[in-house]
Amino acid sequence: MRVARAGGYACRVLTFDEYQQRVLASARPLPAERRPVAEVANLLGLVTAEPVHSSVSLPGFTNSAMDGYAVWSADLRGATPDTPVVLPVAGDIPAGDTRSLELAPGSCWRIMTGAPLPTGADAVVQVELTDGGLEEVRLREAVPAGTALRHRGEDVQPGDEVLPAGTRLQPRHVPVLLSSGVGEISVFPRPRVAIVSTGDELVAPGEPAGHGQVVDSNGPMLGALARECGFDVAAVCRSGDSPEALLATVQELTGAADLIVTSGGVSAGAFEPVKLAFTGSDDFEFVQVAMQPGKPQGFGTVSGTPVFALPGNPVSSLVSFLLLVAPAARVLAGRDPEVPTVEAAVAEHWTSPPGRQQFARVVFDEDGRMVRPIGGQGSHVLGGLAGSQALAIVPAGTTEVAVGETLRVIPLDGLA
Ligand code: AMP
Ligand code: MG
């Protein structure tokens, strides 16, 4: 760690990994809450805080795996296409039939897939091996006991663990969750993220930007990123360049958010409201991180709520959110903080600043295995940001990114 002097502030310089570890060090999952499984559509993406155990057997009753005829297999001994066994049909058992039925020896029931097996039957003959008769049926093949049956409890027994703790609920978990007789499950709530854009130059989205003004694009972008990463957005608001106003806004948001993100106002200029509001607080620090973009960063807590103070350039804000805020918010949600990456080879040379880990905007070649840089790498270049498909991670020691080199890249589509 080095100490640098920037704009009159003594600032520590940390490597990207040091800083990321620092902001993750105190992150813990939010207190778990119990939620009814009937609300499963709202639970997708949440992580189970405790294992889920079934209170029932699955299947709940022995049933037919085929459309066909429920039989006593011994009645079919010797059946062949030339010497079919003919049995009277006692009636139909459709799926959803709740009657308790019995099979008399020497007879059969026509039965549908998923319908309960009548007592006494030990096999189902699929309809394709019969003439499909309704009053009586010709069965052309002998079948062993157990054929085409789904036995009660063969899938899940009462007390079985059907989902371990730490499962991030996906559509594939829904059937067993809803079928296992459980009313409520314990999950980590979705972190509520609040976003505050700073800057007297900002105008509301949709308003024309006059001379010296810019549209607040960070707020809506960070809100969209938060949502895409699976978090709730508690607020997206603007504060000017007054440190007092910013402090009041942040303090108010601690009541509604689990994590607060500010953008702008952390660098070396004369009017840096975030820096002015929190410098001197024991619970806050401003550092320089050896990364590009995103060098000036601040992190701390206000009334126990973590606050990330991100630099204001839109590209820096986006990179800082994905690499620092999102991993911390994932920990609050009980998820793995890891930023998902893939490997790609460099298709075109570019340069990276000495001593800084670069997150370069790149596009994939058609097969998705090679990347090339796009647009200017300045952190204000909005067009290049929009055109990019991924961030390529260039290690701090590399200044020339050579063709053919393999890099880890963070795809920007499908962040959830
Ligand atoms: P700052 O970090 O406050 O010095 O801002 C750095 C640059 O990012 C300046 O050009 C700001 O105008 C711009 N900027 C800051 N906040 C936003 C925002 N919310 N939306 C768009 N641009 C911003
Ligand atoms: Mg500013």
Q: Brief overview, please?
A:
This protein has 416 residues and is of the alpha/beta class.
Structure description:
This protein is an alpha/beta fold and 416 residues long. The protein has 4 domains: 2-30 and 189-332, MoaB/Mog-like domain (Molybdenum Cofactor Biosythetic Enzyme, Chain A, 3-Layer(aba) Sandwich), CATH 3.40.980; 33-58 and 154-188, Molybdopterin biosynthesis moea protein, domain 2 (Alpha-Beta Complex); 63-150, Molybdopterin biosynthesis moeA protein, domain 3 (Beta Complex); 342-411, Beta Barrel (Beta-clip). Helices cover 18% and strands 32% of the residues. It has 8 helices and 29 strands. It has helices spanning 16-25, 40-43, 174-179, 218-228, 243-253, 273-278, 314-332, 382-387; strands spanning 2-6, 9-15, 33-36, 47-48, 52-53, 63-64, 68-71, 85-93, 108-111, 123-126, 136-139, 149-150, 161-163, 184-188, 192-198, 202-203, 214-215, 232-239, 259-263, 284-292, 296-302, 305-310, 342-346, 350-351, 357-364, 370-373, 390-394, 400-401, 406-411. The strands form 7 sheets. A 5-stranded mixed barrel has the order 23-26-25-27-29. The protein has a 5-stranded mixed β-sheet with strand order 10-7-9-8-11, with no helix packed on it. It has a 3-stranded antiparallel β-sheet with strand order 3-14-4, with no helix packed on it. Strand 25 (357-364) and strand 26 form a beta hairpin. Helix 4 (218-228) runs parallel beside helix 7 (314-332). The longest helix has 19 residues, at 314-332. The chain is elongated and about 95 Å long. Residues 1-9 have low confidence and may be disordered. The protein binds adenosine monophosphate and magnesium ion. Residues 197, 199, 201-202, 214, 216-219, 263-265, 267, 269, 311-314 line the site of adenosine monophosphate (AMP). It comes from Flexivirga caeni. Belongs to the MoeA family.
